């Protein structure tokens, strides 16, 4: 990176466009990384990590109620969840 480039773009290596809100209120996430683990009851679960492992409160919560996750991704997580619970 050249110092003149950083000065020219307010510390960024190139010009950065303004942040634009999504036109969608729900289901707009374009990347989902699910964890396979155990829920608060100790049952196998596919979803998101909640809690903290260092405090022994680390569990996985299903993605089914997360409004920003697209329906297709929630369906995929549910299908994997059904498979691992067989």
Task: Describe how the helices and strands are arranged.
Layout: H1 3-8, E1 35-38, E2 44-50, E3 59-62, H2 71-84
Structure characterization notes:
The protein is an alpha+beta fold and 86 residues long. Helices cover 23% and strands 17% of the residues. It is built from two helices and three strands; from the N terminus they run H-E-E-E-H. It has a three-stranded antiparallel beta sheet with strand order 1-2-3. A hairpin with an 8-residue loop joins strand 2 (44-50) and strand 3 (59-62). The protein is elongated. The mean pLDDT is 87.
Q: Give the helix level as a range of percent.
A: 10-25%
With strands numbered from the N-terminus, the spatial order across the biggest sheet is: 1-2-3
Structural class, from secondary structure content?
A: alpha+beta
Query: Cα-atom Rg, whole angstroms?
Result: 19 Å
Strand residue content: 15-25%
Q: What's the β-strand tally?
A: 3
Task: Sketch the topology as an H/E string, one letter per element.
Answer: HEEEH
The chain-level mean pLDDT equals 87
What kind of assembly state do the chains in view correspond to? single chain
Overall form:
elongated
Distance between the termini: 53 Å
Main sheet properties? 3 strands, antiparallel
Total helical segments: 2
């Amino acid at each position: 990176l050249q110092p003149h480039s950083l000065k020219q773009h307010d510390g960024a290596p190139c010009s950065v466009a303004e942040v634009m809100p999504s036109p969608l209120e729900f289901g707009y996430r374009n990347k989902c990384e699910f964890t396979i683990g155990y829920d608060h009851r100790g049952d196998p679960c596919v979803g998101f990590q909640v809690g903290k492992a260092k405090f022994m409160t680390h569990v996985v919560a299903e993605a089914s109620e997360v409004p920003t996750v697209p329906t297709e991704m929630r369906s995929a997580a549910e299908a994997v969840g059904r498979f691992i619970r067989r």
